[in-house]
Amino acid sequence: MEQFLTFLQEGFFHILDLQGYDHILFSFAICAIYANKDWKQILWIITSFTIAHSITLALSVFNIITINGNLVEFLIALTIFFTCIENLFIPQLHSYRVLLSGFFGLVHGMGFSRLLKELFMGMQFNAFTTLLPFNIGLEFGQIIIISFILLVIYCLIKLAYLKPKTITYIISVPVLFQSAIWMWHRFPWQHQILSSSFSLFLT
């Protein structure tokens, strides 16, 4: 039971950790086009994301699939970037957000597994005493994040009298720029490209 609670706590506090806030910004990007009245759509989106990241989290933890960690971090930033682009410029894709969030969940699940392995290096993982509570902790944290985001959007609409489209821009534009910065810094071959370019310059 102690191990269950430990992993539950780790999952919960990881997703709420402001030092690694990429998932929080992803949640903001996902919710930017919605309001409280759209809670059913948001529920489907969260469910799709949860199922998908649970699959790749399990597969990665048990080494059934292995993907370069730097590439995963880059792809996580790319999912945030694409979601913002969709919010701002591709409204035709909004109706497919449940499918897209599922696809993006596959990527984020690999990121979660990387953290789990780093935190408990060398430990034998068990589906019920380690993986399950960690995943449950993630979901509890995600519910808090989504609830907070919807509260912010509600206040912006009801108290600041902002239009939903304006809110979409207020959220999506800064998140877009931050995700672009992450993509640049996390680009897997960036250092190789810079080294090659510098060598060519010297010669």
UniProtKB/TrEMBL annotation:
InterPro entries the record matches: Put_HupE_UreJ
Keyword Transmembrane helix applies: yes
The UniProt record lists the keyword Nucleotide-binding: no
Record's keyword terms, sorted: Membrane, Transmembrane, Transmembrane helix
Record-annotated membrane-spanning stretches: 12-35, 42-65, 71-89, 96-116, 136-157, 166-185
Official protein name in the record: HupE / UreJ protein
